[in-house]
Amino acid sequence: MEEHRKETRLSLVKSTPFSQLRPETWDALEVMCRVKSYRANQTVVHAQERSYFIGCVLSGVLRMEKTLADGRAQIVGLLVQGDFFGRVFDGIAEFSIEAATDTEICAFPRAEFEALLTQSPDLEPAVLLNAANELDRAREWLIILSNQKIVGRIAGFLLLMCSRFRGIDHILQPRPEGVEVKIPISRGDLAHLLGTRPESISRSLHSLSDRGVIDILEPDRILIRDMKALALAADEDEIEAIAILQKLLKNHRTEP
Amino acid sequence: MEEHRKETRLSLVKSTPFSQLRPETWDALEVMCRVKSYRANQTVVHAQERSYFIGCVLSGVLRMEKTLADGRAQIVGLLVQGDFFGRVFDGIAEFSIEAATDTEICAFPRAEFEALLTQSPDLEPAVLLNAANELDRAREWLIILSNQKIVGRIAGFLLLMCSRFRGIDHILQPRPEGVEVKIPISRGDLAHLLGTRPESISRSLHSLSDRGVIDILEPDRILIRDMKALALAADEDEIEAIAILQKLLKNHRTEP
DNA sequence: GGGCGGCATTGACATGTATCAATGACCCTC
DNA sequence: GAGGGTCATTGATACATGTCAATGCCGCCC
C-alpha cells in the first residue's frame, strides 16, 4: 500500500502542469489521493452529474464525450497520463468521461482538493496554468478538425499525439526509422473524433502509407517515417502537389 | 472619465463568470483597469509574444487565431462582451487576438491582476470557474466542427450564438417571429471558422432558408424561425428526412 | 458621377467523402 | 475445432462539397 502511494506520487510528479508544486504540498496530496481502476469502456464520470472527486490519470487512456440529443456520443478529447479532470469549485461535469483502455486514476476528494487550494497560495498558479494549457489543447483539436480534408486531419492528429504524448512510452516510441505511435482507440472512435467514418480513416491512412510517409505496422501501431511530409499534409495538401510532381517526373522518365 | 469607469464596472458585472465577485474587489478592479479601443482587423495580442495585460471585452467582437506554418490563419474562437482573455501567471499567448469589429476592451495590468488574485482568496473560485467555462465553450466548438455536414455545422453555430450571446442585444434580438442573430464576421471568416468555404456557407444558409427554418434578412442578419428544426439539423440531418417526407407528400398531392 | 475593389451569391464541374455491401482477420466462447 | 462476434479493410456508388468562373451589389475614393 505504501508502495502504491509512492508510485502515485511519482506519476504525479511526472505530469508537467503540476510540476511546480512544492514538496510539502506533495505530502498532503499523497495522503489525500486514492487509486481507482477502471476497465475499458467503463464510465468514470457521468455528464450533468455531481462528481465528488478531481482525477488525475495514472495509466491508460480516457475519452471525454458529449452525449447528443439523439443518443450518439461525440468525443471531444482524450486524457492520458498526467492529465487532470473534474471541475474545481463546481461539481457538475459538462462531459462524461469513459475509459478507452484499462485505466488507473488517482482520485482526490473534491472538498479536500479545494480546501488545499485555498490554503496554499502557491498552488493556485499551477492550477490556473493547468487550466490554460488544457484550453490550448482543446483549441489544437479545433485546428485539426477545421482541416477540410481527412488526410489533413489524420496527419494533424498524429502530430498532436507526438507533441502531447512525448515521454509516455506505452504510446510513443522513438525508433531508428522514425517514431512509433500507438493509437489508443479503435478506428470507429478515431473516425468519430475526427468527424468522419472508419472507412475514410482506413483509406486516408493507407494513402499516407502508399506515399511512404507512414508505415502501418498493425492497425493500431503507426510508424511515422517522414515527420516533415506529415506536417505538410496537416497544414495543407502541399504534399499532394509534391506527389503529383513526382509522378509526372516518373512518367517522364519511363516514357522515352 | 469617472463616467467611463462606471460603465466599465457595469459591463463587468454583467459578465456571468465573474458575477460572483465581492463589491470590495470591484473597487480594486475599477481602479486598475484601462479602457482601450481597437478598430476592425487590428491586432490586440500577438501570438508567442509576452502580453502585459489581462483583457475583458466591453463591446465588439474579437477573433482568436492561430497562424499556421503556411501563413494562413485558423480561427479558433470568438470573444464577445464579458469574455476575458490573456493567460494569468504566464504571459505568452498561444493564439493571436484580432478585432473582428470595432472593439472596446478593458485592460488589467497583468502583474496587478495576479497580485489581486493571490491577495483575495474569494476571487480564485471565480477565475477557475471562468477558465473551466472557457474550456467547455472550446469543446462546444469541437462538437460543432466534428459535424460532417456543413448545414449541421451552421445550425450548431447559430445555436451556439443563441446560447452564448444571450442578453447581448447588439448580437441577439428576440422578435415575435423568432430570434434575430447578427453574424459579427464575414462569410469568409465564418467559412474559415467552420472549416469550409464561403460558397458552401452561402448554399447551406439558403438551403435552411428554403426550408423555412431561418430567414436571411440581410447577409449578416439571420432570423431563426424554427429553433427546434435548427437543433435537429445540428444534431443530425433528421430534418432532411422531414423535408423529403414533405416533398413526397406534396408530390402525392399534386400528382392525381 | 464614374470607376474600383471587396463581398455575397449562383452555376458548372471535378473531387472527396459518406454510404452500403462484402470480405477477411482476429478473438472469444462453447 | 467450430461458430459467432467485432473490427479493419476494400470496392462500387451516390452525394456533398471544394473549386473555378461569372455576376451583381455595395461602399469607397478619385
UniProtKB/TrEMBL annotation, chains A, B:
Keywords: DNA-binding, Transcription, Transcription regulation. InterPro entries: cNMP-bd_dom, cNMP-bd_dom_sf, Env_Response_Regulators, HTH_CRP, RmlC-like_jellyroll, WH-like_DNA-bd_sf, WH_DNA-bd_sf. Pfam families: cNMP_binding, HTH_Crp_2. Residues 148-228 form the HTH crp-type domain. Residues 17-88 form the Cyclic nucleotide-binding domain. The keyword Transcription regulation applies. One of its GO terms (cellular component) is cytosol. GO terms for molecular function: DNA binding; DNA-binding transcription factor activity. Coiled coil: none annotated. PANTHER family: CRP FAMILY TRANSCRIPTIONAL REGULATORY PROTEIN (PTHR24567), HTH-TYPE TRANSCRIPTIONAL REGULATOR ARCR (PTHR24567:SF74). This is Fnr-type transcriptional regulator CrpK.
